[in-house]
Amino acid sequence: MVRNPERRTSLLDAAIEVLADEGARGLTFRAVDARAGVPTGTSSNYFSDRDQLLSQVGDRIFVRLTPDPDDVAAALRPAPSRELVLDLMRWIARRLAAERTCYLGLFELRLEAVRRPELRTQLTKVLRSDLDANVRGHLDAGMPGDADTVRVLYFALTGLLLDHFTVPGLLGDRDLDDMIETVVTRIVPES
């Protein structure tokens, strides 16, 4: 396998775009090469097979979706409260909207994981680790609510963003920020 980290990253970013635009069935080495603007066959020099490509795409998505630790620290400066949880949920939604392609790619990976046990195992491990870190962070910061509060917020935001990105008219005249506020005020106890 070729060892050019910048090229590998470029191919993975192109693969994320293909995954988001064309779905898992459209994710081929040829499609990745075309999207990356490299000669046909380049991807196959970096990834031994499609499973390895899917696995590394998942890793790359999480790298791109992980916020800078300094941004997290700044976001957590205010005193713990329901209002801060609301601000954080809106911040997360804005970040994910800015990385819409990654988020849609992640949804496609979730669907593909239904058919690929190895991918499911890897994705489950990474998503569980992320959720566990969110629970720990919430509790360690003294935010209102318990571990289940964080889990319900996670599942609510995941579903809300799935619909917002895939069928945006579903919310009708409701604004995404307003829906997030409704979710937070119904789930998070007052401090």
From TrEMBL:
Domain of life: Bacteria
Portion annotated as DNA-binding: 28-47
Keywords: DNA-binding
Domain HTH tetR-type: start-end pairs: 5-65
InterPro entries (alphabetical): Homeodomain-like_sf, HTH-type_TetR-like_transc_reg, HTH_TetR, TetR_C_31
UniProt GO MF annotations: DNA-binding transcription factor activity; transcription cis-regulatory region binding
Full protein name: TetR family transcriptional regulator
UniProt xrefs under PANTHER family: HTH-TYPE TRANSCRIPTIONAL REGULATOR RUTR (PTHR30055), TRANSCRIPTIONAL REGULATORY PROTEIN (PROBABLY DEOR-FAMILY)-RELATED (PTHR30055:SF231)
